Amino acid sequence: MNAEKRRQILERLRENNPHPETELNFSSPFELLVAVTLSAQATDVSVNKATDKLFPVANTPQAIWDLGVDGLKEYIKTIGLFNSKAENVNKLCRILLDKHEGEVPESREALEALPGVGRKTANVVLNTAFGWPTIAVDTHIFRVSNRTKFAMGKDVVAVEQKLEKVVPKEFKVDVHHWLILHGRYTCLARKPRCGSCMIEDLCEFKDKVYPEE
Ligand code: SF4
């Protein structure tokens, strides 16, 4: 795909949604970090249901640490992989208290050193909590980027590197959310909704699906 087409896609996505936001509920960098950690292999809706009960009771590293692993499990047991996630969030709170004065560090290295926090989670936190132009590639972004030929790559790191290279600076902070939302609601994994897609004329996918035909 050429640069002009990419720019048109980004402009269209921006016009449609000038201030995209994550669908996870949070009101501080710490709440975001916990929510993103809980969201691995789970839907944002299921995470929000749990954190809507958890955060009013405990939304600081000290408060969640004080719940203990079993106490935390009570709040998150409806989310997949809750046993290991409870262990990770509990340990993560201890590290924030011991090493970062109870704050979420604005540093990729420090974030990735936390249990349960990989490159994708670190990218989301740096982007959404701190406004860094990082691009976290999840399953939706990976699919949309490859399918449309916007930024092709054989794995998530390759797609992230390609996006870093081809997305102009003015779009970098928001491209992550635009592509996720596009993948979640329009460019669906099994049956993309090409007939109602706002970038259909620009997308280079060969097997577009038009259910209305
Ligand atoms: S036209 Fe179809 S394949 Fe291309 S981005 Fe839109 S929904 Fe996805």
Which key features would you list for this structure?
10 helices; iron-sulfur; Endonuclease III, domain 1; binds iron/sulfur cluster; mainly alpha; Endonuclease Iii, domain 2; elongated; 0% strand; 213 residues
- The CATH first-level class of the largest domain comes to Mainly Alpha
What is the CATH topology assignment of the largest domain? Endonuclease III, domain 1
Q: What are the segments in which pLDDT stays under 50 over at least 5 consecutive residues? A: none
| Domain unit count | 2
Mean pLDDT: 94
Which small-molecule ligands are present, each listed once?
iron/sulfur cluster
* CATH homologous superfamily assignment of the largest domain: Hypothetical protein, domain 2
Which range does the strand content fall in?
under 5%
Verbal overview:
With 213 residues, the chain is mainly alpha-helical. The chain folds into two domains: 3-20 and 135-196, Helix-hairpin-Helix base-excision DNA repair enzymes (C-terminal) (Endonuclease Iii, domain 2, Orthogonal Bundle), CATH 1.10.1670; 29-128, Endonuclease III, domain 1 (Orthogonal Bundle), CATH 1.10.340. 59% of the residues lie in helices and 0% in strands. The protein has helices at residues 3-16, 29-38, 44-57, 61-76, 82-99, 108-112, 119-128, 139-148, 156-166, 169-185. Helix 3 packs across helix 4 (61-76) and helix 4 packs antiparallel against helix 5. It is elongated. Iron/sulfur cluster (SF4) is lined by residues 147-148, 186-187, 192-194, 197, 199-200, 203, 205, 208. Its EC number is 4.2.99.18.
